[in-house]
Design a protein that fits this description.
- It holds the Pfam family Phage_AlpA.
- It contains four helices and three strands; from the N terminus they run H-E-H-H-E-E-H.
- Strand 2 and strand 3 (60-64) form a beta hairpin.
- The longest helix is centred in the last third of the chain and has 14 residues, at 65-78.
- The protein has 79 residues and is α+β, with helices and mostly antiparallel strands.
- The chain has one domain: Recoverin, domain 1, CATH 1.10.238.
- The protein has a three-stranded antiparallel β-sheet.
């Protein structure tokens, strides 16, 4: 039995999970994950019913994947 070498960051990124701690989702990823429209997502944020985005750069925001997943799980358990 041979020991597997740890994955490099580039390999992990190609596999879709660049970090073991989680990742940021962009708006298109959030739309695909939740099935909600962009307008609905921002409306829910305004009401305080959806996780707020995190400013990543001057012109981009993202949502922490775990926050979106937790929100989805809460919605599913309430249904």
């Amino acid at each position: 039995m041979t020991a597997r070498s740890p994955r490099t960051l580039a390999q992990a990124k190609r596999d879709g999970c660049p970090a073991n701690r989680g990742r940021f989702l962009r708006i298109t990823d959030v739309i695909a994950t939740t099935g909600l429209s962009r307008t609905s997502i921002y409306r829910l944020i305004g009401r305080g019913d959806f996780p707020k985005p995190v400013q990543l750069t001057a012109r981009s925001v993202g949502w922490w994947e775990a926050d979106v997943t937790t929100w989805l799980e809460q919605r599913l358990s309430a249904a």
